[in-house]
Amino acid sequence: MKYTECKPHILLAPFIDAYWELTCKAGGTAIHKILPDGCVDLAINIGDDFLNEKDNSVFKSEKAYLGGAITQFVEAIFSQETHLIGVRFKPSAFSHFYAYSSLHEVTNNVVELSNDLVPKISSFSDDIATAFDSFFHNKLNQSKHSLLPIVATVKQYVGRISVSELAKKHFTTVRQLERNFSYHIGLSPKEFINIIRYRYAQQLILEKYPEIKLAEIAFDSGYYDQAHLSNEIKKYSGVVPTNL
Fold first, then answer.
1. Buried b (16+ CB within 10 A) or exposed e, 17-37
2. CA distance linking residue 59 with residue 61, whole number of Å
3. pLDDT, the chain, mean
4. Residue 224 to residue 114: CA distance in whole angstroms
């Protein structure tokens, strides 16, 4: 299996995290693990129909799919010829391009989209970024209502902030935050905060363990203790911290 990413045009960078491509040749079995990040993904199958053996779902040829935000790791298993291309939207940025019903409806789920919501298959060549950049530049809507500044605050605090503190900083209510997060991200504010905190802890483990002990990393990341850290890492990644 081969998985690659490339960045969008600078004007789209505040909204789109990356364009990606996944290919897999027939004859073997490949497992692609997807970890929670608060993002939603648009995927287009430009190859033949294929079966995701993990949940027996079929991705039809030349069809587009929306993958909602996930709350725990997901494994996709491939054992046949596969060719997917896609777009990973930053948390809450999907609504800057699409007028979609609440993203909470697709949390931990994948739904088929109409082909008129994505670039034409014929527009893709060896450079998928050019086709995606052109398409999404024309669709970009600088909405007055945006969660992007609130998402930025959560990331600035690396998840070490309560929902009530977050609401206070942005002059809104907890109830309004919960409605907006559910609609524009598909997660509750608490779920999103926990994911950002986990990702920060995971980064510390990858970069600094074993020079820095897990108990200290747990404290730096805002967890109660090492056991709390271990449980969260295993929940989101499927492995214990020392196996990251």
1. bbbbbbbbeeeeebebeeebb
2. 7
3. 93
4. 45
Distances (CA, A) of 71 to 171, 184, 195: 27, 15, 8
This prediction has a pTM of: 0.94
Q: 189-208 and 214-221 are packed helices; what angle lies between their axes, rounded to 10 degrees?
A: 150
Task: Write the pLDDT tens digit of every residue in 44-71.
Answer: 999 888 877 667 788 899 999 999 999 9
- Pinpoint the alpha helices (H) of the chain: 128-139, 148-156, 163-169, 174-184, 189-208, 214-221, 226-237
Question: Would you say 179 and 102 are in contact if contact means Cβ atoms under 8 Å apart?
Answer: no
Residues composing the chain: 244
Which of 15, 10, 194, 157 lies closest to 91, judged by CA?
15
Averaged pLDDT for residues 75-82: 84
